Amino acid sequence: MKIRFWGVRGSYPVPGAHTNRYGGNTSCVEVRPKNGPHIIIDAGTGLRRLGKELMQTAAGEGKASSHILISHTHWDHIQGLPFFAPLYQAGNKLYVYARQRDDTHLRAVFATQSEDPYFPVPFNAAQADVAFRELVEGARFQLGEVQVSCTRLNHPWIAMAYRLDCDGASVVYATDTAPFTDILLENEFIKTPPRLGDPPSPEHAAKLRVMRDGLVELCRGADLVIYDTQFTRDEYKIRPHWGHSTPEDALEIALAARAKTLALFHFSPDRTDDEQDAILAATRAKVAGSGLEVVAAQEQMELELGEQ
Ligand SMILES: [Zn+2]
Ligand SMILES: [Zn+2]
Question: Ligand 1 centre and the CA of 18: distance in Å?
Fold first, then answer.
Protein backbone atom coordinates (compact mmCIF):
# COMPACT_ATOMS: atom_id res chain seq x y z
CA MET A 1 0.00 0.00 0.00
CA LYS A 2 0.99 3.59 -0.53
CA ILE A 3 0.66 6.25 2.17
CA ARG A 4 0.68 9.91 1.14
CA PHE A 5 0.51 12.91 3.49
CA TRP A 6 -1.68 15.86 2.43
CA GLY A 7 -1.76 17.72 5.75
CA VAL A 8 0.55 17.25 8.75
CA ARG A 9 -0.25 20.26 10.94
CA GLY A 10 -2.27 20.44 14.14
CA SER A 11 -4.83 23.03 15.27
CA TYR A 12 -5.10 25.36 12.24
CA PRO A 13 -3.50 25.89 8.83
CA VAL A 14 -0.27 27.88 8.74
CA PRO A 15 0.80 28.76 5.20
CA GLY A 16 3.99 30.77 4.87
CA ALA A 17 7.69 30.86 4.21
CA HIS A 18 8.59 29.12 7.47
CA THR A 19 6.26 26.15 7.00
CA ASN A 20 6.60 25.47 3.27
CA ARG A 21 8.71 22.35 3.48
CA TYR A 22 6.66 20.38 6.01
CA GLY A 23 3.47 22.07 4.88
CA GLY A 24 0.84 24.23 6.54
CA ASN A 25 -2.32 22.17 5.96
CA THR A 26 -4.09 20.33 8.76
CA SER A 27 -4.35 16.56 9.14
CA CYS A 28 -5.08 14.42 6.11
CA VAL A 29 -3.44 11.13 5.08
CA GLU A 30 -4.28 9.04 2.01
CA VAL A 31 -3.92 5.26 1.98
CA ARG A 32 -3.96 3.46 -1.37
CA PRO A 33 -3.92 -0.29 -0.83
CA LYS A 34 -2.89 -2.47 -3.77
CA ASN A 35 -5.70 -4.87 -2.94
CA GLY A 36 -8.33 -2.68 -1.32
CA PRO A 37 -10.47 0.44 -1.60
CA HIS A 38 -9.30 4.04 -1.49
CA ILE A 39 -9.01 5.29 2.11
CA ILE A 40 -8.50 8.75 3.58
CA ILE A 41 -7.72 9.32 7.25
CA ASP A 42 -8.94 12.68 8.56
CA ALA A 43 -10.39 15.53 6.55
CA GLY A 44 -8.31 18.56 7.58
CA THR A 45 -7.51 21.27 5.05
CA GLY A 46 -5.06 18.97 3.25
CA LEU A 47 -8.14 17.18 1.89
CA ARG A 48 -8.85 20.03 -0.56
CA ARG A 49 -5.79 19.40 -2.71
CA LEU A 50 -6.28 15.64 -2.57
CA GLY A 51 -9.82 16.21 -3.85
CA LYS A 52 -8.51 18.24 -6.79
CA GLU A 53 -6.14 15.42 -7.71
CA LEU A 54 -8.86 12.78 -7.41
CA MET A 55 -11.05 14.82 -9.78
CA GLN A 56 -8.46 14.19 -12.51
CA THR A 57 -9.32 10.49 -12.33
CA ALA A 58 -12.53 8.49 -11.79
CA ALA A 59 -13.93 10.99 -9.26
CA GLY A 60 -14.19 13.60 -12.04
CA GLU A 61 -16.59 11.27 -13.86
CA GLY A 62 -18.55 10.38 -10.73
CA LYS A 63 -17.18 6.86 -10.64
CA ALA A 64 -15.04 6.92 -7.48
CA SER A 65 -15.56 5.81 -3.93
CA SER A 66 -13.53 6.69 -0.85
CA HIS A 67 -13.71 5.63 2.77
CA ILE A 68 -12.91 8.52 5.13
CA LEU A 69 -11.88 7.56 8.68
CA ILE A 70 -12.12 10.49 11.10
CA SER A 71 -10.05 10.48 14.29
CA HIS A 72 -12.39 13.05 15.89
CA THR A 73 -14.35 16.06 14.75
CA HIS A 74 -12.23 18.97 15.94
CA TRP A 75 -11.84 21.58 13.18
CA ASP A 76 -8.33 20.61 12.14
CA HIS A 77 -9.62 17.13 11.27
CA ILE A 78 -12.82 18.01 9.34
CA GLN A 79 -12.55 21.48 7.81
CA GLY A 80 -11.41 20.19 4.42
CA LEU A 81 -14.63 18.28 3.75
CA PRO A 82 -16.72 21.21 2.40
CA PHE A 83 -13.86 21.88 -0.07
CA PHE A 84 -13.49 18.26 -1.22
CA ALA A 85 -14.45 18.44 -4.90
CA PRO A 86 -15.57 14.77 -5.30
CA LEU A 87 -18.36 15.58 -2.82
CA TYR A 88 -20.07 17.74 -5.49
CA GLN A 89 -19.85 15.22 -8.34
CA ALA A 90 -22.92 12.99 -8.74
CA GLY A 91 -22.14 9.29 -8.80
CA ASN A 92 -19.25 9.39 -6.34
CA LYS A 93 -19.64 7.44 -3.10
CA LEU A 94 -18.18 8.58 0.19
CA TYR A 95 -18.31 6.59 3.40
CA VAL A 96 -17.45 8.58 6.53
CA TYR A 97 -16.52 6.80 9.79
CA ALA A 98 -16.08 8.34 13.22
CA ARG A 99 -16.77 7.59 16.84
CA GLN A 100 -20.37 7.66 17.96
CA ARG A 101 -21.34 10.55 20.21
CA ASP A 102 -24.04 10.37 22.86
CA ASP A 103 -25.78 13.55 21.76
CA THR A 104 -25.40 14.29 18.05
CA HIS A 105 -25.47 12.00 15.01
CA LEU A 106 -22.37 12.09 12.89
CA ARG A 107 -24.18 13.50 9.85
CA ALA A 108 -25.38 16.47 11.93
CA VAL A 109 -21.86 17.07 13.25
CA PHE A 110 -20.55 17.38 9.68
CA ALA A 111 -23.58 19.14 8.22
CA THR A 112 -23.50 21.88 10.86
CA GLN A 113 -20.15 23.23 9.70
CA SER A 114 -21.65 23.85 6.21
CA GLU A 115 -24.77 25.63 7.47
CA ASP A 116 -25.62 29.29 7.06
CA PRO A 117 -24.00 31.58 8.28
CA TYR A 118 -20.77 29.54 8.20
CA PHE A 119 -20.76 28.36 4.59
CA PRO A 120 -22.80 29.13 1.45
CA VAL A 121 -23.37 25.54 0.31
CA PRO A 122 -25.48 23.37 2.62
CA PHE A 123 -24.28 19.81 3.14
CA ASN A 124 -27.50 18.52 1.54
CA ALA A 125 -26.33 20.06 -1.75
CA ALA A 126 -23.60 17.43 -1.99
CA GLN A 127 -24.20 15.47 -5.20
CA ALA A 128 -22.18 12.46 -4.13
CA ASP A 129 -23.74 9.65 -2.20
CA VAL A 130 -22.52 10.16 1.40
CA ALA A 131 -23.03 7.51 4.09
CA PHE A 132 -22.02 7.83 7.73
CA ARG A 133 -21.01 5.00 9.98
CA GLU A 134 -20.68 5.57 13.72
CA LEU A 135 -18.05 3.49 15.46
CA VAL A 136 -17.63 2.31 19.01
CA GLU A 137 -14.24 1.99 20.68
CA GLY A 138 -12.52 -1.24 19.81
CA ALA A 139 -14.54 -1.76 16.60
CA ARG A 140 -13.02 -4.07 13.95
CA PHE A 141 -14.31 -4.25 10.40
CA GLN A 142 -13.27 -4.98 6.82
CA LEU A 143 -13.13 -2.50 3.98
CA GLY A 144 -12.67 -4.98 1.15
CA GLU A 145 -9.31 -6.60 1.79
CA VAL A 146 -8.36 -4.02 4.43
CA GLN A 147 -8.79 -4.98 8.08
CA VAL A 148 -9.55 -1.89 10.17
CA SER A 149 -9.13 -1.83 13.96
CA CYS A 150 -9.46 1.10 16.33
CA THR A 151 -8.93 2.12 19.92
CA ARG A 152 -9.54 5.30 21.91
CA LEU A 153 -7.00 8.00 22.67
CA ASN A 154 -6.50 10.43 25.56
CA HIS A 155 -7.93 13.65 24.14
CA PRO A 156 -10.69 16.11 25.15
CA TRP A 157 -13.95 14.58 23.85
CA ILE A 158 -11.96 11.49 22.83
CA ALA A 159 -10.19 10.67 19.56
CA MET A 160 -9.82 7.32 17.83
CA ALA A 161 -6.63 5.69 16.54
CA TYR A 162 -6.92 3.42 13.50
CA ARG A 163 -4.87 0.51 12.27
CA LEU A 164 -5.11 -0.72 8.68
CA ASP A 165 -3.76 -4.14 7.70
CA CYS A 166 -3.50 -4.96 4.01
CA ASP A 167 -0.99 -6.08 1.35
CA GLY A 168 1.07 -7.82 4.04
CA ALA A 169 1.69 -4.51 5.81
CA SER A 170 0.17 -2.35 8.53
CA VAL A 171 -0.15 1.35 9.32
CA VAL A 172 -1.43 2.99 12.52
CA TYR A 173 -2.73 6.54 12.68
CA ALA A 174 -2.69 7.85 16.27
CA THR A 175 -3.56 11.52 16.74
CA ASP A 176 -4.67 13.46 18.84
CA THR A 177 -3.57 12.13 22.21
CA ALA A 178 -1.93 13.15 25.45
CA PRO A 179 0.41 10.63 27.06
CA PHE A 180 -1.16 8.21 29.53
CA THR A 181 0.63 9.33 32.67
CA ASP A 182 -0.64 12.65 34.02
CA ILE A 183 -4.25 13.40 33.15
CA LEU A 184 -7.37 11.57 31.99
CA LEU A 185 -9.23 13.45 29.25
CA GLU A 186 -12.83 12.57 28.52
CA ASN A 187 -15.98 14.52 27.63
CA GLU A 188 -15.24 17.72 29.48
CA PHE A 189 -13.15 20.86 29.20
CA ILE A 190 -10.37 20.92 31.79
CA LYS A 191 -9.45 24.55 32.37
CA THR A 192 -6.32 24.21 34.39
CA PRO A 193 -3.49 21.70 34.04
CA PRO A 194 -2.79 19.21 36.83
CA ARG A 195 0.39 19.75 38.85
CA LEU A 196 2.81 17.53 37.01
CA GLY A 197 4.32 15.01 39.36
CA ASP A 198 1.00 14.58 41.19
CA PRO A 199 -0.10 11.07 40.24
CA PRO A 200 -3.63 10.65 38.82
CA SER A 201 -6.22 9.06 41.13
CA PRO A 202 -6.22 5.22 41.19
CA GLU A 203 -9.43 5.23 39.14
CA HIS A 204 -7.96 7.53 36.48
CA ALA A 205 -4.64 5.69 36.50
CA ALA A 206 -6.46 2.40 35.82
CA LYS A 207 -8.35 3.92 32.88
CA LEU A 208 -5.17 5.42 31.47
CA ARG A 209 -3.40 2.06 31.74
CA VAL A 210 -6.16 0.32 29.79
CA MET A 211 -6.03 3.05 27.13
CA ARG A 212 -2.26 2.84 26.79
CA ASP A 213 -2.33 -0.97 26.60
CA GLY A 214 -4.98 -0.73 23.88
CA LEU A 215 -2.83 1.65 21.86
CA VAL A 216 0.37 -0.38 22.25
CA GLU A 217 -1.59 -3.45 21.12
CA LEU A 218 -2.95 -1.53 18.11
CA CYS A 219 0.61 -0.48 17.16
CA ARG A 220 2.09 -3.98 17.76
CA GLY A 221 4.63 -4.77 15.04
CA ALA A 222 3.23 -2.09 12.70
CA ASP A 223 5.30 -1.13 9.67
CA LEU A 224 4.38 2.51 10.19
CA VAL A 225 2.99 4.43 13.18
CA ILE A 226 1.89 8.02 12.50
CA TYR A 227 1.77 9.81 15.88
CA ASP A 228 0.78 13.14 17.42
CA THR A 229 3.93 15.11 18.27
CA GLN A 230 2.47 18.60 18.65
CA PHE A 231 4.46 19.57 21.73
CA THR A 232 8.02 19.77 22.92
CA ARG A 233 8.54 18.60 26.49
CA ASP A 234 8.52 22.20 27.78
CA GLU A 235 5.30 23.01 25.94
CA TYR A 236 3.65 19.87 27.32
CA LYS A 237 4.53 20.88 30.88
CA ILE A 238 2.41 24.03 30.45
CA ARG A 239 -0.49 22.40 28.59
CA PRO A 240 -0.88 18.71 29.51
CA HIS A 241 -4.68 19.25 29.48
CA TRP A 242 -4.72 20.12 25.76
CA GLY A 243 -4.45 16.45 24.82
CA HIS A 244 -1.25 16.26 22.77
CA SER A 245 2.03 14.34 22.91
CA THR A 246 5.74 14.93 22.44
CA PRO A 247 8.17 12.98 20.23
CA GLU A 248 9.40 11.24 23.40
CA ASP A 249 5.88 9.96 24.09
CA ALA A 250 5.61 8.74 20.50
CA LEU A 251 8.94 6.92 20.81
CA GLU A 252 7.85 5.26 24.04
CA ILE A 253 4.72 3.78 22.43
CA ALA A 254 6.46 2.84 19.14
CA LEU A 255 9.29 1.08 20.98
CA ALA A 256 6.92 -0.75 23.35
CA ALA A 257 4.96 -1.97 20.31
CA ARG A 258 8.11 -2.87 18.33
CA ALA A 259 6.89 -0.80 15.39
CA LYS A 260 9.27 -0.51 12.44
CA THR A 261 8.90 3.16 11.47
CA LEU A 262 7.54 6.12 13.42
CA ALA A 263 6.29 9.19 11.54
CA LEU A 264 6.18 12.36 13.66
CA PHE A 265 2.91 14.14 12.80
CA HIS A 266 0.36 16.84 13.83
CA PHE A 267 2.95 19.55 14.33
CA SER A 268 2.33 22.68 16.33
CA PRO A 269 1.27 25.62 14.15
CA ASP A 270 4.09 27.57 15.80
CA ARG A 271 6.77 25.13 14.63
CA THR A 272 9.00 26.34 11.78
CA ASP A 273 10.57 23.98 9.26
CA ASP A 274 14.01 24.48 10.77
CA GLU A 275 12.73 23.74 14.27
CA GLN A 276 11.04 20.62 12.97
CA ASP A 277 14.31 19.48 11.34
CA ALA A 278 16.03 19.84 14.72
CA ILE A 279 13.27 17.90 16.51
CA LEU A 280 13.56 15.09 13.97
CA ALA A 281 17.35 14.91 14.36
CA ALA A 282 17.11 14.87 18.17
CA THR A 283 14.41 12.20 18.10
CA ARG A 284 16.44 9.99 15.76
CA ALA A 285 19.50 10.36 17.99
CA LYS A 286 17.50 9.04 20.97
CA VAL A 287 16.78 5.71 19.24
CA ALA A 288 19.96 5.24 17.22
CA GLY A 289 20.74 1.54 17.06
CA SER A 290 17.28 0.47 18.30
CA GLY A 291 16.03 -0.63 14.89
CA LEU A 292 13.18 1.92 14.98
CA GLU A 293 13.31 4.28 12.01
CA VAL A 294 11.97 7.81 12.58
CA VAL A 295 10.70 10.18 9.88
CA ALA A 296 8.83 13.48 10.09
CA ALA A 297 5.72 13.64 7.92
CA GLN A 298 5.72 16.26 5.17
CA GLU A 299 3.00 17.22 2.74
CA GLN A 300 3.35 15.11 -0.43
CA MET A 301 5.70 12.63 1.25
CA GLU A 302 4.84 9.14 0.05
CA LEU A 303 5.76 5.92 1.87
CA GLU A 304 5.36 2.46 0.39
CA LEU A 305 4.57 -0.49 2.67
CA GLY A 306 4.32 -4.19 1.87
CA GLU A 307 3.04 -5.35 -1.48
CA GLN A 308 2.86 -2.60 -4.11
ZN1 LIG B 1 -5.81 18.02 16.01
ZN1 LIG C 1 -8.25 17.49 18.70
Answer: 20
